[in-house]
Design a protein that fits this description.
Helix 7 crosses helix 8. The relative contact order is 0.21. By secondary structure, this protein is an alpha+beta fold. The protein is built from eight helices and 19 strands.
Length: about 350
């Protein structure tokens, strides 16, 4: 497989910079092996069956884009000051984070970056092209301080067009977010509101929550033409005993398991122990799903429209077939669906509706 196999031309005006309102007003392209149907997210119940199970990623995005001022110990007030922009990437659970810092070259070990009166971080050094920071706060105190000082880390293709604002604090968070740790949203889940979730459950479709903390690596480009040589970023996730039991029960009863978003799909396939069987699982996954992958748990997928030449294009091509996904994306572009994180969505059903 070559990277060019997953390329396509996308008109710039189809990149969404704000979500549809209400959330369920987003368009939904339903794709089977033989049909393409234009619908809306609010119509999702028409395509689900009693006994199906949706898998929802309940990770919560932290406002991890920070703007601070660097100072150096031992220097007089006003000396050694520089403005630093930080985007948090991944924590170690002890107040230490890997982060992107601009300009990284202006940081030396021992520097302190103040982001607010309450929040600061010490620069511990570099790990390749990333900064390693130790914050002065952890736990709930850190969550409160970063909520006041930080901005939502919008994807690069949105941030290039406009700055994050207060509206993004609501728009870039799912209505069922509860486990803090992501630096990017599980964007297919942004289309749900409480009313739609209630309608889905009322028709006999079950909901299971899992957690995968989406990292900024989800936006990193694939830089090798030979796809097999690409190294995926690792992300922390958890499938609880309850979640595994629920999924196994649905599979045993013949119901369909449909993850909402590629993050939920990658997690449940990481936790699979056999065809049609999943086990509790906690850890970091760097699973890389490309055409030829044998799915063990997944029967369908709700997902937004992805970047050309991305690992997510490879994943959906593995589920539906590369040629079929070309058809799907050709249709979406012709019908002016909105793309990427704040864009419209698709429901992919490889076994038909």
């Amino acid at each position: 497989m070559k990277l060019s196999d997953f390329d396509f031309d996308l008109p710039e005006d189809l990149i969404a910079t704000r979500p549809a309102r209400p959330r369920t007003a987003s368009r939904l392209l339903v794709a089977t092996p033989d049909t393409l149907t234009d619908a809306h997210v609010g119509d999702l119940t028409s395509w689900l069956r009693p006994g199906d199970r949706l898998i929802l990623n309940d990770t919560k995005v932290i406002p991890g884009r920070l703007f601070g001022t660097r100072t150096r110990p031992g220097q007089a007030p006003g000396e050694g000051v520089a403005n630093i922009e930080v985007t948090l990437l991944s924590p170690d659970g002890q107040g230490q984070w890997h982060a992107m810092a601009k300009p990284l070259r202006k940081l030396k070990e021992g520097d302190v970056i103040a982001f607010s009166d309450a929040l600061s971080a010490e620069f511990l050094g570099r790990d390749d092209d990333q900064a390693v920071l130790r914050f002065n706060l952890v736990g709930d105190a850190f969550d409160v301080a970063i909520a006041e000082a930080g901005k939502m880390p919008l994807p690069p293709y949105i941030a290039a067009k406009r700055a994050a604002d207060d509206q993004d604090n609501e728009d870039y968070q799912t209505v069922f977010a509860r486990n803090t740790g992501a630096v990017a949203a599980p964007t297919a889940s942004l289309h749900f509101d409480a009313d739609l979730l209630s309608k889905i459950e009322a028709m006999g479709v079950d909901l299971t929550h899992v957690t995968l903390h989406v990292g900024a690596g989800t936006f990193l480009p694939v830089k090798v033409d030979d796809v097999s040589k690409h190294k995926m970023h690792a992300e922390w996730g958890e499938v609880s005993q309850t979640a595994a039991d629920e999924i196994n029960a649905t599979l045993a009863a013949g119901g369909r398991v449909i993850p909402v978003g590629t993050t939920a799909l990658r997690l449940i396939e990481s936790a699979a122990v056999a065809k049609g069987q999943i086990a509790p699982w906690t850890g970091e996954t760097d699973i890389f799903i490309t055409p030829g992958f044998e799915f063990s748990i997944t029967d369908g997928l709700m997902t937004n429209f992805h970047l050309p030449k991305s690992t997510l294009m490879m994943l959906v091509s593995a589920l539906m077939g590369t040629e079929r996904m070309r058809d799907v994306y050709t249709h979406a572009i012709a019908e002016k669906y909105r793309f990427f994180s704040y864009g419209d969505s698709s429901l992919l059903l490889p076994k038909g509706a």
